Amino acid sequence: MWFCILLLLVLAAVTYFQAIQGLTSAIITGVLTVLSAAIAFGTYEYVAQAFLQGFLGDLAYAVAFLGMFLVPLGILRLILDSLVPRSSQIPHMLDRIGAGVVGFFTAFLATGMLAIGLQMVPWPGIIGYERFNHSKPSDQNEVWLHLDRAVAAYGVALSDGVFGGGERFNAEHPDLVSELGWLQAANVGVRRTAPEDALAFQAASEIPSVYEVSGGSGHLKPLTYDAVEPGPGKKFLRVTIKVSGDKDKLDDPDDRQRFTPSSVRLLGTTNDEPQIYPGMAVPDDKQPNYFVRNWDEGGDADEKRYTIGQTLSVPASGVIEVVFEVPTNFQPTKVKYKFGAEAPVRGLSKAQPEPAAPPPPTPTPTPVAGGRISGVKIVFGGSHFGADLPVVMTDYQGTSDVQNGVMHEGSVSGRAEDQGAVHKNPDISSFAVPEGKALLHLDVESLKAGSLYGKAMNFAAQTVENYIIEDNHSHQLTPVGKYAVANVGGENIIEIQYYPMVGGRVKPFERIKSTNLQKDYQLVYLYLLDSGAQAMKFSPGGNLHPTDLSGENLVAP
Known about the structure:
Layout: H1 2-21, H2 23-56, H3 60-83, H4 92-119, H5 147-160, H6 169-172, H7 176-183, E1 199-207, E2 210-214, E3 224-228, E4 234-243, E5 258-259, E6 264-270, E7 273-278, E8 282-283, E9 291-296, E10 305-306, E11 312-313, E12 319-327, E13 331-337, E14 341-344, E15 376-378, E16 384-385, E17 388-393, E18 397-403, E19 406-415, E20 428-431, E21 437-446, H8 452-464, E22 468-471, E23 476-477, E24 481-488, E25 491-498, E26 522-530, E27 535-539, E28 547-548
Parallel strand pairs: 2-9, 19-20
Antiparallel strand pairs: 1-4, 2-3, 4-12, 5-11, 6-7, 6-13, 8-9, 9-10, 13-14, 15-21, 16-21, 17-20, 18-19, 19-25, 21-26, 22-23, 22-27, 24-25, 24-26, 27-28
Helix pairs in contact: 1-4, 2-3, 2-4, 3-4, 4-5
């Protein structure tokens, strides 16, 4: 409310000032305001990314937007004040009325620019005003007179008209004001900006449903998952991205970036009209293969907590999975992350079969097979086929059969930074892959359990490592090797195992322990598939809680 009152006071003050300056001055200021606003809309992103983000951080976009509006306006006004005479032959009353009318439109435009610029400042609320309603994400709190939306529409009109360039503003920001609200939904201290190259698109596929979670308050209420289908004329798109960032630009002491699903936006077109949507569901902590839209621990529908505005930690792998609800004929073109980072969407997989809803846990857990912890989960979009090692090993220890740079079997480890820099051993650059086979590098993330029972089950799964891939010929394949890169005692260690003749016999790493797989690590399991076969399912053994891999299109070459 107070923010809206402040904007109305600015509107009234600028209108009054223009009215007393006379019609000639008001017209000059009006024309210059239009020109300066066009300059601001066309240049603020480039100025923020190229010149300001490095030292202003989250303030860069607000400073760039308001600066590229106010600085040209001030300079041009000073120049014209010295060149254009202000004397007017118009009757005094008509001069004041005309100046007031022109001044109101100038004030409206200037106040709308101020409203947009202030909403770019990294704070979740502006004098009591928050656009994004966490309890009802579909509703937004609007600025009085819709000053910001009207001016944003003006910016779009300029980009489509005489000030249009090679890239239309509307094509990149079809709903700039809503975007600002989505970006500002994060908690205080969470960064709103990211470097332009901090985002990489990995995969996108259509899924049939997301889930609403209820119950689970301690052990008194069972946790239930209710599948929710898309709304009429809508579909759910699951998008996998990977984000990166410098350590000195992370959000908290645990070396993790933080984000909200709403800060991830999917840009595209519907019937050739540009549209943008925020992320609205993410994988559940307890059921990583199920995407949760909201949850409710108290059973009150009015107290649901929506995922879209929750502040979450980026996993150590940097991989984020987000679901968007979009029109059925929506064609995605870009995915955006915070202010600044974006990546093109390069493909869309076919819809995946709907998974069965997970069974609710009993109030008092009993040790039965198939708990919710499976040891590891798939990092979607991170797997690939190939014979190359992750790095060329040149300084290592261990026992291995190496011939002409090819590792036939064995286990080696060494400091990651020494590989390629120090040559103490014969180089190892690739794995020996049997004829008619292809080597799948399955990128996974180690799960961390919270309960004592979960930790016990997780320890068992990660110790046995009976992780099974099922291909499209119903062949069940066990791992023939694995490799990991992790911080051990302050050193980045890479450790590789490869035993292609004895599948399923991978052993625990000698140097890298499960406790080292906490942050900034990579963990990959190796499987041999017949050429032409496709990896369809992944499970921790016994076909328990399989993960559907069909959308990954992992077909052996």
